[in-house]
Amino acid sequence: MLKIGLLSDTHGYLDERLYEHFADCDEIWHAGDVGDAKIIIDLQAFKTLRVVSGNIDGREVRALAAENLYYDLEGFRVWMTHIGGAPPKYNPQVKPALQADPPNIFVCGHSHILRVMRDPKLRNMLYINPGAAGREGFHKIRTALRFTLDNGKIPGMEVIELGKRGALQ
Question: Which residues make Cβ contacts (< 8 Å) with residue 96, sequence separation at least 6?
Fold first, then answer.
């Protein structure tokens, strides 16, 4: 059993409250648009980190992050990338691979829209986009997710709301 903290689209800003929210997590996953290599370094010092780069990320972040991550964990095959689209309109670059061999869990960011749903057309794959945890973008509320993976089951998923996008905390 592993507890996961998932965030995306920090755009150079990491809310300090995430350390409290992710304190009991075994791993943190960041689905891209990190914005600053220091965020990766700080999160790696805190917990095991799996991170992909996003379209705004420069050379320093790209040196520390993969473009795509594929891994098996707790009975799930996971694919994490930044620009994935959303069911049923996936990014044309990922759609053929998703259709040919869908993972159990597909994680992406980019849209700044929190969305968790099953795709029955892709073997009931779980699509997860945690929204945006940073202050840049058009989203109104900054969000992240926390969930547990337990031998092929996800017994619970929690949305973490971090306040309004531009609000001072």
Answer: none
Q: Over 60: is that where the pLDDT of 134 sits?
A: yes
Between CA 35 and CA 58 the distance in angstroms is 8
Evaluate whether 83 touches 110 at the Cβ level (below 8 Å): yes
Cα 143 to Cα 115: distance, rounded to the nearest angstrom? 11
Reported as a single tens digit per residue, the pLDDT across 71-101 is: 999 999 999 999 999 999 999 999 999 999 9
Pick the closest to residue 147 from 16, 6, 14, 19 (CA basis). Answer: 6
Cβ proximity of 141 and 134 under 8 Å: no
Instruction: Give the 3-state DSSP-derived string for the chain, with helices as H, strands as E and coil as C.
Output: CEEEEEECCCCCCCCCHHHHHCCCCCEEEECCCCCCHHHHHHHHHHCEEEEECCCCCCHHHHHHCECEEEEEECCEEEEEECCCEECCEECCCCHHHHHHCCCCEEECCCCCCEEEEEEHHHCCEEEEEECCCCCCCCCCEEEEEEEEEECCECCCEEEEEEEECCCCC
Token readout for 68 is 């795509």
